[in-house]
Amino acid sequence: MSVTKYYPADARGYADHGWLKATHSFSFARYYDPEKVQFGALRVLNDDIIAPGMGFGTHPHDNMEIITIILDGSLAHKDSMGHTQTIVPNEVQVMSAGTGIEHSEFNANRDREVNVLQSWIFPDKVNVEPRYDQTNFPEEERVNKWQTLVSPIDKDDAGLKIHQNAWIYRTKLEEGNSIVHDLHTAENGAYLFVIEGSVTVNGQTLNKRDAYGIADVSNVAMEATKDSDVLLYEVPMLQ
After folding, report:
1. How far is CA 157 from CA 130, 142, 162, 184, in A?
2. What is the pLDDT of residues 8-42, one digit of tens each?
């Protein structure tokens, strides 16, 4: 029997720091909900809006797979591995923090906000050598199909690599179209996050920024009731 949970957008945690408007799908910083600490190996999904010219100063991470997706604007990144990059829409950045990294992130624009989705996934091995990767994923290559953004480092699948048996997909599903995702293993679950639009999953309607978690299934089917932009995280459920 499948295990499902609906996560409405307006039930997420929220913090307004002036320069940063942060919305948390899971417990983070001062926001804590014992019912929303993580979904399997997916520990963080933050929907951040950063004011022009502002950002996060240099800070450390370790033993976490960090995935950054830009929805609007551009983000300047600098880290202790020597990378100085700017990330723009349709690009994805992955960092395996491993034994430890430090980095900073700033809105690269002085006249507009940047909207960032940042996800943290627990790794399946600790203290690996830190690594960085970034690439562009063309929008036209995800119309009415799953585009693989992230996949396990030991698999030949497309996408940027992380140290976990997890995948991240994105689709631009046009109104009236349906799509199915077959999970790779019975130990994994799926977490769907609607960036824009409206879809139905298992009879549940999901609108902008709503999410839906499902486990103990072999596949997930979704239909778009409006043109939609959706992320799917397939992650181990971590007993």
Report:
1. 21, 16, 12, 12
2. 999 999 999 999 999 999 999 999 999 999 999 99
Do both 188 and 169 map to the same domain? yes
2 in a domain, yes or no?
no
Q: How far apart are CA 210 and CA 61, in angstroms?
A: 28
* φ, ψ at 118 (rounded to 5°): -120, 130
In terms of DSSP bridges, do strands 147-152 and 160-162 run parallel, antiparallel, or are they unpaired? parallel
In a shared domain, residues 125 and 169: no
pLDDT digits 0-9 by tens, 209-227: 999 999 999 999 999 999 9
139 phi and psi angles, rounded to 5 deg: -60, -40
For residue 39, give its domain range: 13-136
Domain harbouring 29, CATH code? 2.60.120.10
Cross-strand bridge partners of residue 22: 15, 48
Report phi then psi at 31, rounded to 5.
-90, 125
* Residues 37 and 104 occupy one common structural domain: yes
